[in-house]
């Protein structure tokens, strides 16, 4: 496996923003030069940090499934919108530029995000064809469009009843009141949004389940394919929900949600065949 750490810098970036690329080697007997799909991970953390628990443990699962994986440690507060989104655009550009070296199927690039990272991934899904994004990245808009989005208990809405206010305040700073509606993803969905795999828990108190219900409704109205799984129990930020992503005190283990990674594997297989 190749492993590379690549600095990512745009206007407004934090100095330590990096992309971690995990590139699988060729399989013996596979066709020469065969390319693999890639999944880019955006860990959560309320736009105040990027969570370790939602980064490499998920990457290891996806690598075992046969996907190249990248982790974007994007800029967080005091960096403001659209810094993190521009960084994600740079990563999409970077993967395209390295497609031969890394043997990536550029028609099969997926973007995954957890919590606030889910908001970042979903934002790419609604903004990939907007000039403010692709012109600053210096690419054709199609370069920025993922094959699909994987959204784990994502922050989506600025609706006052269901908002995760911390994430939006960290993202927007002093522009919170004037700009929050402009980054409320469910209001921005069009038929151009990529297909989505989404999961959440019914009892999430930090990011209410209505975030994904509002998003799924918008996807349905726009004719965008989506697969939604809502588990009956589980707190926010569970990641894989097993021992590998548990906290030191034993919390964040939730057996009912552990099936999501297998369900994702089925969805990904269907998307890449």
UniProtKB/TrEMBL annotation:
It comes from the Bacteria. Keywords: Hydrolase. Residues 35-218 form the BD-FAE-like domain. GO terms for molecular function: hydrolase activity. InterPro entries: AB_hydrolase_fold, BD-FAE-like_dom, GDXG_lipolytic_enzyme. Coiled coil: none annotated. PANTHER family: AB HYDROLASE SUPERFAMILY PROTEIN C4A8.06C, PEPTIDASE S9 PROLYL OLIGOPEPTIDASE CATALYTIC DOMAIN-CONTAINING PROTEIN. This is Acetyl esterase/lipase. The lineage of its organism: Bacteria, Bacillati, Bacillota, Clostridia, Lachnospirales.
């Amino acid at each position: 496996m190749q492993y590379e750490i690549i600095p990512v810098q745009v206007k407004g970036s934090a100095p330590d923003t990096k992309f971690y690329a995990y590139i699988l080697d060729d399989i013996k007997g596979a066709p020469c030069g065969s390319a693999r799909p890639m999944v880019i991970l955006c860990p959560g953390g309320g736009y105040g940090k990027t969570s370790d628990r939602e980064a490499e443990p998920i990457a290891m699962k996806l690598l075992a499934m046969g996907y190249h994986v990248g982790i974007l440690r994007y800029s967080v507060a005091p960096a403001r919108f659209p810094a993190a989104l521009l960084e994600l655009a740079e990563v999409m550009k970077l993967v395209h530029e390295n497609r031969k070296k890394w043997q990536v199927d550029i028609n099969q690039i997926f973007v995954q995000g957890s919590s606030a990272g889910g908001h970042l991934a979903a934002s790419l899904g609604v903004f990939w064809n907007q000039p403010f994004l692709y012109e600053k990245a210096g690419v054709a808009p199609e370069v920025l469009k993922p094959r699909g989005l994987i959204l784990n208990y994502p922050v989506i809405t600025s609706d006052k009843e269901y908002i995760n206010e911390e994430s939006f305040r960290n993202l927007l700073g002093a522009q919170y009141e004037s700009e929050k509606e402009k980054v409320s993803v469910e209001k921005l969905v069009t038929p151009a949004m990529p297909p989505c795999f989404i999961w959440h828990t019914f009892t999430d108190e930090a990011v209410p389940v209505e975030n994904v219900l509002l998003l799924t409704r918008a996807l349905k109205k726009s004719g965008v394919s989506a697969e939604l799984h809502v588990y009956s129990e589980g707190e926010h930020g569970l990641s894989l929900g097993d021992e590998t992503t548990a906290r030191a005190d034993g919390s964040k283990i939730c057996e009912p949600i552990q099936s999501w990674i297998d369900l994702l594997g089925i969805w990904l297989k269907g998307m890449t065949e």
